[in-house]
Amino acid sequence: MEILSAQEEDVLKYVKEFAEKEVKPLAKQIDLDQNVPESLIRRMKELGLFGSYIPEKYGGSGLSFSFLVRVIEELSAACPSTALVLDGALTLFAEPIMMFGGEHLKQKYFPQIVEGAVGGLAITEPGAGSDAASIKTTARKDGKKFIINGTKTFISNGRIAKFFIFDAITDPGKGSKGITTFVIDSGTPGFEISRDIHKMGIRGSSTVELVFKDAVIPEEYIVGELNKGFKVIMETLDAGRVGIAAQAIGIARNALEEATEYIKSRKQFGTPISDFQGIQFLLSDLYTELTAARLLTYEACKAWEKHEDSVLLSSMAKLYASDAAMRITTDALQLFGGYGYTTDFDAERHMRDAKITQIYEGTNQIQRVIIAREILKGK
Ligand SMILES: Cc1cc2nc3c(=O)[nH]c(=O)nc-3n(C[C@H](O)[C@H](O)[C@H](O)COP(=O)(O)OP(=O)(O)OC[C@H]3O[C@@H](n4cnc5c(N)ncnc54)[C@H](O)[C@@H]3O)c2cc1C
């Protein structure tokens, strides 16, 4: 299924080469160091990846959402933590400003992203995960400013982001109708990282808890309208979920390609283990599942791009691709036998990395809730 223009296909060839030659060889060390090196982020900037999705008017190259999704897939096949740096900056930070932000926010932040500044999205709180409307962070109006208090947790790109989109209660007692979305710059007094969170997978990605203690931001930092921030977050996640589906496909593809090479060279009973029908049938199922996940993800991507109602498709893509990635990486490890369980091969890392795609940007249980709701609405 073709989703890119001929020009984008040409550019993607360079991205694939970069991912294969410059990112993949570092992936194991990135996992061990729990850090994506600054030099790699700079290379992504030099290659124009940060500017790829930013409109030309702000210094970017205005390429399509489909291109971004393909870039996330390629980078994730090499190193999903590195992919998340770019994904966070573009689908989680730039996208809501693109959809809902005023011109002043676009002019302030987009040129910085083109120059490689990373962003993040801070919505989860210690007491508000799946139930995103139950946040406790408050934004109290004080003249032309807002005073922010609260805690956000599990925030990706935390240590490296220069700015974050976040949501807070502006009209208490109104639930999702009393939430406003804002942007805040790192380094704002009263806004700090309270702890690093260590994880089983995507260990190169910085995940932190953030605390607001009387942090003051100007009212111009509202993204969209006062008390209409929940919609901003939900629509951002619709785009974000397609990005996570692409991340899942990238991880699964890499795991499967490595396992395919291994079974051709590993001999038991006097023959390569790829000669055994039991292995071949497993391989057939895994490639079929990967292809189905990719087609669904590209379909969701196209729907989002055409501004069609894409809630159902993006939830289905995220659900299916992440479940597929978990099954594929688990079976790919199995194909390595005992060696798959060791750190001599990357199969165990792929399995650890795949797991997060079933959890973030709405767990897969929540995707099923959304899918059922959309079906019952008659979508
Ligand atoms: C590595 C990592 C990075 C993350 N990055 C970000 C980020 O950048 N920004 C951000 O804002 N958040 C981020 N998150 C948070 C992530 O989106 C949440 O962890 C996720 O939405 C689930 O919330 P929770 O952890 O509070 O789980 P809970 O909501 O407490 O859920 C616990 C369990 O109950 C299930 N459950 C809950 N409600 C229902 C229901 N109605 N029906 C059936 N089952 C249900 C869930 O599926 C889950 O299995 C990140 C998380 C991780 C681990």
What small molecules accompany the polymer chains? flavin-adenine dinucleotide
CATH topology of the largest domain: Butyryl-CoA Dehydrogenase, subunit A, domain 3
Could you state the oligomeric state of the chains shown? Answer: single chain
Distance between the termini: 24 Å
Give the strand content.
15-25%
CATH superfamily of the largest domain: Butyryl-CoA Dehydrogenase, subunit A, domain 3
Q: Helix content range of the residues, please?
A: 40-55%
Task: Give the overall silhouette.
Answer: globular
Q: CATH first level of the largest domain: which class?
A: Mainly Alpha
Structural class estimated from helices and strands: alpha+beta
Record the strand order, biggest sheet: 2-3-7-6
Please describe what this structure looks like:
With 379 residues, the protein is an alpha+beta fold. It folds into three domains: 6-117, Butyryl-Coa Dehydrogenase, subunit A, domain 1 (Orthogonal Bundle), CATH 1.10.540; 121-227, Butyryl-CoA Dehydrogenase, subunit A, domain 2, CATH 2.40.110; 231-377, Butyryl-CoA Dehydrogenase, subunit A, domain 3, CATH 1.20.140.10. The protein contains eleven helices and nine strands. It has helices spanning 6-23, 27-33, 38-46, 65-78, 80-100, 103-114, 229-265, 277-305, 311-335, 347-355, 364-377; strands at 118-122, 138-142, 145-156, 161-169, 179-185, 191-196, 207-218, 267-268, 271-272. Strands 2-3-7-6 form a four-stranded antiparallel beta sheet, with helices on one face. The protein has a three-stranded mixed beta sheet with strand order 1-4-5. Helix 1 (6-23) runs parallel beside helix 4, helix 5 (80-100) packs antiparallel against helix 6 and helix 9 (311-335) runs antiparallel to helix 10 (347-355). The radius of gyration is 21 Å and the shape is globular. Flavin-adenine dinucleotide binds at residues 120-124, 129-130, 154-156, 199, 207, 356, 359-363, 365-366, 369.
